[in-house]
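Question thread 4412

I'm putting together a teaching handout and wanted feedback from people who do this every day. The idea is simple: show students a protein as raw sequence, then show them the structure tokens that encode its fold, then repeat with a second protein so they can compare. Below is the first pair exactly as I plan to print it.
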Amino acid sequence: MKTSAQLEAMLREIDHKSYPAYKALKGAYSFGSYTLSIDHVQGDPFASPSRLTIHISSESSGFSPELWKTPARRIAFCDFILRRFARSVEAYSFKAKGSGKSGALFCTRPGQEVLERTACTVEKNTLLVRFEAGFPANGRTINSRELGRILFDYLPKCVSQSLLYKNTDQKALKSAVELYEDQEAVREALEPMGLAAFVADGAVLPRMSGVSNRPMKDATAFFSPDSLRLSIPLPHRGTISGMGIRKGVTLITGGGYHGKSTLLKALEAGVYNHIPGDGREFVITDATAVKLRAEEGRIVKKVDISPFINHLPGGRDTSCFSTEDASGSTSQAAGVMEGLEAGTGLFLIDEDTCATNFMVRDELMKRVIAPDKEPITPFIRRIRPLFEQLSVSTILVVGSSGAYFNAADCVIQMDCYRALDITERAKKEAALFFPEKESAEPFPQASVNRPLAFSETRRDAGRPVKIRTQGRDGFLFDKTLVDLRYVEQLADEEQCRALGYILLWLKSRPAGGTMAEVLSRLYEKLRKEGLSSIASLECPPFMAMPRLQEIFACVNRCRL
């Protein structure tokens, strides 16, 4: 390892040389209390910025290893540190001047969710923080004096401000770690209490706007109906009370703009833990929950959709169904079966984003169109068997059709963002309006054990695959778009980037089993070894951990 003095000497030596001379800086340098590693040097000042890593031991930082002794504590600790470091770095971005991206300082800026990320990790009691810096130049001529300002002036201040325990808001750090442990305690309590989800009293569910995930100011706080309220003991903050949504079939209903979809959105996001002040800190949902919706135009690959769609015209086989351009009902049928394959225990559905003919079929339509002419078995006839046979619950938002009231175990009405338990009244009215219940049939035996296979793609030998994210909407795998717009539980662009590298890792190795077997093994590897285990160990890109369900969703929607 070289010293910081040697780095200064190298900067003086390459000043005013052509930009590629910066490549000589690659390596690790001791700055006394920490090590700076220059992992990747950009090709020119207009290219993606250079990647750097700070390594600081627990002895130098002052942080106790107790803060990362469990996976939960480590994730919460790294998230807290990363947010502080990102704020420090942002204050110095572009203060060093030059052409193109000269002087830019970039670091992951996490959102409301607490996710495991490659931007900040702990390895052998050493804290690693990764960031990007635009190495300064005038035109394409090196301006190493400006880079010296970044490395020897700005960066030490960032380290001091955010990576030393003595300069940390210790109370806030302790609170963040304990909150994450309390959230995990609620999550672990769901199964033994027979719950699909929990929404704490006092939670703030509405968001500031369609483009901001922060809590809405002056929003009506959520409080549970007395009949659904229960309490859960927590390791740090005592006992918490709120609405327990039990396993089974739960309907969320009410008038327009009264908070139905807002509650469902909070439950969708409840598969992740959230930061203090988010408002949804204790909205906790079954971690395997899948948001189900129609996705017209998506690809479907060898999925057995026969439990929902059968005897298509022309005798087309639906037990191994493929299409490049699915209809709304076909895509939703595939979504159910893919969700089962991914191991979900809960479907989250909003009728507004569903294919109507997949969800219900009224009595008049049954009379006009004979049953043998309709290949679709609607979801209403499968919703009870899904739970009773396969232990898969459903939380469904309905506002225009009461057909599901008879099938429901619980009906929650949202009235001006207040939750009311109207199960008894809804069931009574449904019994009068629908004297004959919709017949529920046993869920058919269906195959959810597909092989994992990719098509052969032509590309230049030796040329690395480029993965370019498009926000949370998906990513380009070289020139192939993987469209994830309707995978609504993706919370961060860095999860999309991780999915791109997961796909690259999968394509470069023989499958060796069914899709469920291969992806489950891979997910276990990621949990044990981290996301950097599937990317360059020397210079992993900024990635955030997706759930197993999003990995399945990505593989199912890629056209490779």
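The second pair follows. I'd like the answer to focus on this one:
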Amino acid sequence: MKEKFISLLYPSEEALIYHQNRDNLPNISEAVCDELGLTELFSLKNSILSDFFTRDADIIKYRQSTIDDMLRLPELKDTLSRVHPILDDIQELRRLDSDSQNSGDSYLYSITEIELYVSCIDTLREGFEPIRDKIKSPAFSELCDFVIELAASDYYAELNKKLSALAQRVHEVRSVTIGVNLDRELRPCSASVVSVNSEQFKSGRTLDKILRLSFKNDAFTTISELSPFGKGQSDNKREALTAAFHGAIEDVFRASIKGWRAIVGEYVLDNTDFLLRLLPEIEFVSKATELIRRLSVHPGCSVTVPRILPESEKAFSAVGLYNPRVALAIDDEIVTNDFAFDDDARIFVLTGPNRGGKSVITVAVGAAQAFAMLGLPVPAEDAEISPVDAIFTHFPEGADDTIDKGRLGEECARLREIFDGVSENSMILLDESLSSTGAYEATYIASEILTAFATIRVRGIFSTHLHELASSVPDINEKSKSQGGIALDTLVAGIEEGKRSFKIVRKKPDGKSYARDIADKYGLSFDNLMAERSRRGG
């Protein structure tokens, strides 16, 4: 039966081959995945998440249909969860086979691999057949039809028949009788198999056999105690026994297994390879489906299949957007926000109080973009998104207001590296960058950087405590537009009635309100200080 190209993630073999070249993938590194919380959310073991990003709208839509089937039909996920460990076993068997120096072991590995292959096909058929009419995606339709056709073929029936007979023969082997020749010093000098037996040997003593008078009818009771293989034996004796054992296995199985492998080996191994190639895809769609399900049932959370717009439109618009890692880390209903890049602004300077939600929304935008480019529903109520050629993040660890010239140099070097890598189709997410220097220096450097990014026409967010930077946006826009660049605007992490609302609002910041918020938090406002003094009777 001729193998078809089947993939859960790519509509054609050409698309898969193209994406296997990392130079053709969007520049979304594992470090970016870590900073956006994606590595933790997906927790892949057979691959890395950055391998799965794509800018191709057709591939994204192909995956969306695959995930839709997984979400609609829990039987699919259950079937894949049963197949996954079988494929893991085949992969481990391949590793053992490649490490083995013994052809006898290799013959046995061949039988076991074929058994696992048959088990895998049977598991897929049993899971797919009852729901075939409900499957809509091209990926699962192709896989389902291939498995059902294969399992119903005469060849597969003959494969099972031969495998059953061969496996029975292998499983009947319980012991071998080995003849060992000795030299004049009674050292083993040669050995070979005498017989292959379906019964195991039992420990015995010569006196017992004499008393029972059963020498002829008790060939499987030894005249001394059985001992573990190799225990207490000289190197020569151990080597002779090992060689004899391997020779026995090879003699017994050479004719049948070698002939068997020559007849069906190429077919079976090719099809096993096909299943192994699906292993990373099976893991990805399974982990992704579980993640989307968890988000969809979390209080206040929605997921939506985004409308994918051409890359040239530079679209990003989301209603009810939230950070998925934060959502799954809390029990309460999460605060959502509406967010959009548009013709009036494609770079935002986001200010607000500490712990007011600036970092959360910055990561949320990046996560939604990444989800869309993986072909998944995004954490929002509604969204339309264009692919990007890269996502760059700069989330310094331990960011604070302490002046640290060494770390400032590292931050500037990283920002220059990002600038050198971006294009007008890239996204930048900068969170508290330049926090290692004073406000004056940081504001000046950030203004220069943002003017350059705006001139290149990238889109992104600069989340910062630098309120002076937000005030300088009109000056940045004037310089950027004179160079043919795009406009910036400001966002504010809101405070309502003196409390953090975690709502992000598009407006000019009021630096005094944040300072007042901090003063109130620590009891340092004039009213708080005087009220406390009065309470103490001072």
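Top answer:
Good format. For the second protein you could add a caption like this: The chain has three domains: 54-172+259-296, 175-244, 307-535. Residues 54-172+259-296 form one domain.
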